[in-house]
Amino acid sequence: MRQNIEQKIKNSLKAASDKVGIIDPEINLEHPDDINHGDFSSNIALVYSKIVKSSPKALAENIMVELKKNLPAEVCVVEIAGPGFINFKIVDSYFSKEVLKIDGDFGKGNCDKGKKVMVEYTDPNPFKIFHIGHLMSNTIGESISRFIEFSGAEVIRANYYGDVGLHVAKTMWALLQNKEKFPSEKILLVSRIEFLGEMYVLGANSYENESVKKEIVEINKKIFEKSDPEINSFYDLGKSWSLEYFETIYRKLGTSFDEYFPESEVALDGVKIVKEFIKKGVFEESQGAIVFPGEKHGLHTRVFINSEGLPTYEAKELGLTKKKFDLHPDLRESVVITANEQSDYFKVLIKTVECLYPNIASRMKHLSHGLLRPTSGKMSSRKGNIVSAENLIKEFESLVMGKMKDREWKENEKEVVAEIVAMAALKYVVLRQAIGGDITYDPDKTVSFEGDSGPYLQYACVRAEAVIRKALEADISTKIKNMPEKVELLERMLVRFPEVIERSRLEYAPHHTVTYLVELSSAFNSYYATNKIIDETDPFSPYRVALTKAFVHVLTNGLWVLGIKVPEKM
Questions:
Q1: Long-range CB contact pairs, 236-240, < 8 A, 24+
Q2: pLDDT band per the 50, 70, 90 thresholds, residue 531
Q3: What pLDDT shows up at residue 372?
């Protein structure tokens, strides 16, 4: 469809460029901001003018002469704009015909066909709170997974959680000081989780005391060795509660993981790898610890086995990476999503893997994101003022319920819609900008049904679906006998969808699709405001209904890859 006409134009440009002395050019097409300037634009004359020793405009004119000898039939106008851009306008009939081909599979690609890709994301730690940083990782990871899946790959969703380590030891230390307060399993799960969170904060703050620190370090060894029955008992219960609680949040977020990797099951693997490769000079001993000398590679040195003989996060991550590819040797790509604070850590890790297993390192991809900041500033689980994902979701649900207070719906209907709309608001605010930067959110704006928000997109879809239902009731013919001579921005926007999806996938950039969906919904709302879609006396009404259906298909698919559901009503 759109990709075909784009390729046709590229082929024509390449042939014309060859004729004017540009050898094997790289050709990129963009969409002009103003639709009146055409459907595609090329800057080839500006890029190659110095190479052929010509002004951009003169080169563009020479290319135009050759272009006109071999233009695709769908191109009705080609002209030079500005300092030397070449703009192409496509015949309106092309878009109206392509719109009628849009169905529920529209946008699905094949650039990843036959590939197996693992995406690891969320990675919450048992015994600690599931905070909005985890929510952010989950939102990005689930969307990236769906873009890859929508592009034809088999996707394995993976979750790596820290069930051993100092954070667990800190919680265990506090638990041992407060055994009499340990909650019964009869108490609500959320209350048990709150208790574990309080114990972690107590342990983390107490860790600053040197004597307590020694006790926590000793507990950490006992957890790793499973040598203390009392600690094991508390540990097993706390871990099972945490994992059960995480699943309740995953269901809300619309995520289902295929693989779970606990740190405890990859730690020894990491130790074995480090000890194997220290003999080969990849690792070095330093003050009783084993390190990777990152300075030799322009990075920084990191400890893989500490002076206590225990594996660090680095060694565990090494064991995890190897295990992923041992379980799935045909993985074409392993994508990991974490917070920005782990970026330098992953640079060292990937360099380490490169020294050990070059074939694996070449298939690793790390994406990092910033913080989702409340107005109070940076969160800290150690200080105990962290914002839990559950509380944030409840806050948004409450705001949405407030907007629906005048709806004459049953209370359970409001609750269902509020959850779907609240999740859309949260996911949208995370995905609307390029992955990497911090985000400050304004709750009132994010739940708005107008403008730049997830609920705005949902509302546009619900409105369009209502139009389709009315068309069925009015028995508008599905046989389209009359097509418009001119199309509007809506048709042109709809046909772009597959290329937007492909760009988002290849650049790991959901925000391109978010921007597109907002512009598309705006185009539909303008069309809706200026055209009577359902009119039994209008011979063009069947086409307008088909156009509305195409919009619903595209918007629904676009929201799906973002992990956003569409409620039945709003």
A1: 237/185, 238/126, 238/127, 238/171, 238/175, 238/196, 239/126, 239/127, 239/163
A2: very high
A3: 86
Residues 54-68 have pLDDT tens digits of: 999 999 999 999 999
- 298-305 long-range Cβ contacts below 8 angstroms, 24+ apart: 299/344, 299/347, 299/348, 299/351, 300/344, 300/348, 302/345, 302/348, 304/270, 304/274, 305/271, 305/274
Rounded Cα–Cα distance for residues 418 and 412 (Å): 10
Nearest to 106 by CA among 492, 497, 457, 462: 497
What is the spatial distance between Cα 294 and Cα 303, in angstroms, rounded to a whole number? 10
DSSP H/E element including 320: helix 313-327
Kindly report the number of other CB atoms within 10 A of residue 456's CB atom.
Answer: 21
Burial class (CB in 10 A: 0-12, 13-18, 19+), 184: exposed
Cβ atoms of 134 and 123 within 8 Å: the answer is yes
Q: Which helix (H) or strand (E) holds 556?
A: helix 541-561
pLDDT at 384 over 80: no
What is the rounded distance in angstroms from the CA atom of residue 562 to the CA atom of residue 81? Answer: 36
For the stretch 447-493, pLDDT in tens is 988 888 999 999 999 999 999 999 999 998 778 999 999 999 999 99
E strand or H helix at 80: strand 75-81
Model confidence, pTM: 0.93
- Of 42-51, 133-142, 390-399, 514-523, the least confident: 390-399
Give the C-alpha distances (Å, rounded to integers) separating 52 from 22, 120, 260, 270, 501.
Answer: 7, 48, 57, 56, 35
| Contacts for 132 with CB less than 8 Å, ≥ 6 apart | 372, 379, 387, 388, 389, 392
